[in-house]
Amino acid sequence: MLKPNMIGENRLKRVLINDKKEFSPELTKILKSELYEMFDNYLSVKRESMDLKVVINGKGGYDVVITFNANYIKSYGIVV
Amino acid sequence: MARKIVITSGKGGVGKTTLCASLGAKLSLGGQRVLLVDVDIGLNNLDVVMGVENKVVFDLVDVIEGRCRPKQALIQDIFNPTLFVMPSVHSYNHSVVTAENVKMVLSKLEDFFDYILLDCPAGIDAPFQRAIYSADEAIVVVTPHISSLRDADKVINLLSSSNIKKSYLVINRVRGDLIMSKEIMSVEQISELLKIDLLGVIPEDDEITTSLVIGNNMQGKSPSSYAYKLIAENLHNGSQNIYDCTCRYRGLWGFFRKNIRRRV
Known about the structure:
Number of strands of chain B: 8
CATH architecture of chain B: 3-Layer(aba) Sandwich
Strand order of the largest sheet of chain A: 1-4
Helix content of chain B: 40-55%
Number of domains of chain B: 1
Oligomer: heterodimer
Largest sheet of chain A: 2 strands, antiparallel
Distance between the termini of chain A: 64 Å
Structural class of chain B: alpha/beta
Order of helices and strands of chain A: HHEEEE
Structural class of chain A: alpha+beta
Number of helices of chain A: 2
Shape of chain A: elongated
Radius of gyration of chain B: 18 Å
CATH superfamily of chain B: P-loop containing nucleotide triphosphate hydrolases
Radius of gyration of chain A: 19 Å
CATH class of chain B: Alpha Beta
Number of helices of chain B: 11
Strand content of chain B: 15-25%
């Protein structure tokens, strides 16, 4: 049998996680667009293959998973 | 230049105004020049908590509308000569009070004070945004209840995406006897879940209620008065001395005190 303080902690964790799970499609779209711009400087990225997943982890934070296909790495010559 | 600190919470009735008044009093007792500004326009209570409600001539709205100079709206505290209050008693005209206007008023006063504490309204809407706009730091006040902690988490998220550089947590109305019997969450559990630096803990204390009736800003030597003093020291010196709410309930006398409290 859990003590009331542990029940309270578990309830609060659940509530905080639920409050954070709303990651809007608009925000996902903006993030994908900005990430594409950034990766495209270094890689030839297939835009349509890009996928972004935002998952809530057990600690109340987020795990962000980005996957995409790239044709090749862009050449920048010799880095000094 | 003054440190501008907003005292906020999300949920109402957790002790923002009381903390604002008491923290101001303790800072000024330590020799700091402190200004308390009531940005909770409409549901203003800072003047009453400070016991200066009969001394109000001008307020924040009068300064913004140009009816007086900023210094004319300041009221000196009865007990501490370096503590001043800028009330906001004219609740009929909110529309003139914009975030920019409040910032402009504070900029005219910040050279004369070491600390400016802003008493923020409850909620996360426009009045909250107006209150946090002028501040550099924030103190989030919570009680050990899930509803208060949930609202505080939302406020902390909003503060992290605002111009606030540093946020602190104060846990109010903590009952040490319930923490010892594991009936409420401990201070450590709360601060770990909210992921914010703990500035202090204030015990549940009847002295606060009496002090609010008298309007004397926790001048006594009660446990809560000592807890406010520690918070003021932590804020000023960067120390991390947290009041231990369970200390009164340890040992033989603590055992009796805990059981008597539960039975009465």
